[in-house]
Amino acid sequence: xxxxxxxxxxxxxxxxxxxxxxxxxxxxxxxxxxxxxxxxxxxxxxxxxxxxxxxxxxxxxxxxxxxxxxxxxxxxxxxxxxxxxxxxxxxxxxxxxxxxxxxxxxxxxxxxxxxxxxxxxxxxxxxxxxxxxxxxxxxxxxxxx
Length: 145
Fold this sequence. Notes:
Radius of gyration: 16 Å
Shape: globular
Number of helices: 4
Oligomer: single chain
CATH topology: Nuclear Transport Factor 2, Chain: A
Strand content: 35-45%
């Protein structure tokens, strides 16, 4: 496959995902993930690390949503090259009644026309770690989150 064909395929897959995400189309979002998808969350929170398989990745997405009430504010860009696709998104997180927005870069590998791997880069990793870590501490101590 030529580099321009690879780039076009990657862009189409990532754009399909971005469109489903922007429309809050959960079935469309889930359908974009490869069965063996892998997520890489950075930082020091209890959710940091590598999550393998669609079930594990959907579980970590659910947990982040529960802890942060995250919501998409905007998709700024969808980009693709020969090897990876990239979404530049702005999300809103909420914790203890306060909200904040952060830019997130989501780098994707594509396999069999689906998203097969994702690396999540947060603009303010320290703040994300703090929110996810504090939420996890409250959960484990029995306090409501």
